[in-house]
Here is the input.
Amino acid sequence: MRRVLPMIASPHTGGQLETRPHPPVRQGETGDVIVGGVVAHVPSGHDAERPLGLLVMLHGAGGVPDQAMAYVRAAADRLSFAILAPKSADMSWDVTCGGFGPDVAQIDQALAAAFDAHAIDPARVAIGGFSDGASYALSLGLANGTVFRSILAFSPGFNAAPRRSGTPRVFIAHGIHDTVLAIDRTSRRLVPRLRQDGVSVEYVEFDGPHTVPPPIVTRALAWWLDGRDGT
Here is the structure.
């Protein structure tokens, strides 16, 4: 049985981030580092005159940051984006364990530290994830669309955004043979609802199980960074 986390009244319990992109106030470290208490990767040698993209990448239930990082790390240096890979406070993200709170606070803190230390392009701040991490990316991203301009959801199960903020665009990919989060009960219901609500959605179904194939990651990153569908 999942433990219900205690909730303390704050903006975070409503799923709202307090930090906003801003110019850096110091020079941060690059490479594989810890940023705001969160595992991160920041490309070395990037030109401060050309701000980095920033992707918050979330693991699935029972996962660890390295698993989320592994999907996108190889592309980060080549495509000039930084990665934050937080660890959920419980076995999965707080919204599945009682409501928004500790994980929102952690992500807020890590984002603030990243903006303080590195030149980040506000138009290229995104959140993504796999499985429960994808569901959380959708939920937190749609609630904070003024921060996260793009959302990359790989095999999501649900959307629990209490409200929508801003106009984030969404990339969703799901395997047609997924036996963990069956596509007929998840993405094939989520996508029409999002579109009916006016959300711009790029939707990809692939011939595979509950996984994130490298070609799908490549397509999602191209969609995010270049504004194209990657085909």
